[in-house]
Design brief:
single chain, alpha+beta, eight-stranded mixed β-sheet, 3 helices, 8 strands, 24% helix, 31% strand
Length: 175
């Protein structure tokens, strides 16, 4: 085969490969207007929903005991509730499945990002009130060191985890 044909064939293959891969990494469609999406995760990170059972200091960081659950919406929520209760009625379009209460243990750096829901700033601050991990540890123990007007003291959290370390905790509003 002539060198120019080899080059042309290689160039065509390269253009086709680049074109195909562009479709694989295309940006996702924009979300509904005004919808706030959770922070994106990096490779190797996961986001879990559940309840913080304890948060205790351990040296320069904290140990979190976390009870994972499934926060379901839409058809998934309706079918799960129907199987669990015999009714597919899902008020506020969410249903939480508590499959078990196995507690998972994670490290939490003292500098991790934490937001809780407070009555301060409503409706402007529906995204949460930033606090420290140390303050959250006190709240989990039933204390309220800064006297915040807690909106959802028992509501669950979304945690972003990398390996065995929590990077952020964001409390979920439950109507």
């Amino acid at each position: 085969m002539k060198p120019s044909l080899v080059f042309l064939a290689a160039a065509t293959t390269l253009v086709a490969a680049v074109s195909a891969s562009a479709h694989l990494v295309a940006a996702p469609a924009p979300s509904s207007a005004g919808a706030k999406l959770p922070p994106a995760t990096r490779p190797g990170e996961v986001v879990l929903y559940g309840h913080v059972k304890s948060l205790t200091r351990s040296g320069s960081r904290f140990l979190l005991r976390f009870d994972p659950a499934w926060w379901l919406t839409g058809l998934t929520a309706k079918r799960a509730k129907l199987e669990d209760t015999g009714s597919s009625d899902v008020p506020n379009d969410y249903y939480i499945v508590e499959e078990g209460h196995r507690l998972l243990t994670y490290f939490v750096p003292a500098t991790a990002h934490v937001t809780i829901l407070t009555r301060a700033g409503i409706p402007a601050n529906l995204g949460g009130t930033p606090i420290t991990v140390s303050e959250l540890a006190q709240i989990v123990k039933g204390r309220n060191p800064r006297g915040r007007q807690l909106m959802e003291p028992k509501a669950g959290f979304w945690i972003r985890v990398a390996g065995d370390t929590v990077r952020s905790l964001d409390q979920q509003y439950q109507p």
